[in-house]
Amino acid sequence: MTIAEKVQNTEASAIPRPRGSEESPAAQPFAGGRLYILDGLRLVAALMVVIWHFVGANSSEAYGEPTSSLFPAVVWKLAHYGWTGVYLFFLISGFVICMSAWGRPLGDFAASRITRLFPAYWFAVLLTSAVLWLAPIFNGRRKPSDTVSNLSMFHELLGVRPIDPAYWTLLVEMQFYLLFALIVAKGLTYKRVVTFCVVWTLVSLAAFAYSVPGAAALAPKFSSFFVAGIAFYLIYRFGSSLLLWGIVGFSWIICMNRLIRLSAGNYSANWRPASVAVTLFFVLVALIALHKFDWVRWKALVAAGALTYPLYLVHQEIGLTLIKGFSGHIAPIPLLLGVIAVVLLLAYLIHRLVEKPVARLLKRGLASSLAQLRRG
């Protein structure tokens, strides 16, 4: 399954091997199996962001009065740290992308990302645009040209605002995929992936510290989360080493610095509770890397994980529009629960009726195109 170089005998002893293998990483596939717990964590991360947008953030405008007076204090306070769920997404993404890319040629890696990201995204952009056009009661209508630009997923590079503000994370993910594709093209090996982690971390630090022009392309503000996720996957695949835990620890320190900077900026949140949340994320993924959750085999988590992406795509603008429309007619807590149920149902329908069938068609088309390219 892996596409890796055979290492020299003098180096081999220093490079951990996949668990259960006596051969080099190049020679032996790693049968890690599906990590059901990651599906569950993805949904947790998505729901954290949903609560942040529906109770925290600027949601008071949708309800017509401060949310601090509408919800129990504990709910309101916890909701104000729901934005940390995005960092859990990035941490999981580093782990999962490294895992899914291992042993794949670049073309297959690119095709898998396209079929995973775009079908649900295209539909979400069109649906959200339609809702904003038909019911411009929260953020107003958007120009058709904005919708068209958003379909590319690179709209921000074109100077166009996202149709849904939550889409900002998609460009960060795409930056990670494009950077990681550089080593996927060469073939993933332990040494190459570790080198990628170290180089990306150091370059991101330099770019962030010295305001290097064009540095935003390297996602320096978020690289530490992806790097930690990658290192956790290497621990999961090859076993613990001081080097890998050092990468994780250094990434955690950078993440803590990021939280301190945010708390001093526009976020109305204290960095200490946020740091506890992010540290908990690191601990959870560390336990996954150490195979402590391999016993989890609940198929319901697979279904839950499948809802995560479409839920993230459609929850904010559509959800806040619903809250704005019904806020004078339904009490805040039933309204909140009802809107969450609606966007979850919408996510399920998108997954079943749009994402799966369109992804199958797209996968066949991309497979045919790749075959033509390989034939020359």
From TrEMBL:
Name the residues that span the membrane.
35-55, 81-102, 114-135, 166-185, 192-212, 242-260, 272-291, 335-354
Q: Which GO terms describe its cellular component?
A: membrane
InterPro entries per UniProt: Acyl_transf_3_dom, Acyltransferase_3
Q: Which keywords appear in this protein's UniProt record, sorted alphabetically?
A: Acyltransferase, Membrane, Transferase, Transmembrane, Transmembrane helix
Q: Where is the Acyltransferase domain?
A: 36-351
User: Quick one: where's region Disordered?
Assistant: 1-26
What GO MF terms are annotated? acyltransferase activity, transferring groups other than amino-acyl groups
Q: Give start-end of the signal peptide.
A: none
Report any one BP term from Gene Ontology: lipopolysaccharide biosynthetic process
Can you say what this protein is called?
Acyltransferase
- Species the sequence originates in: Catellatospora chokoriensis
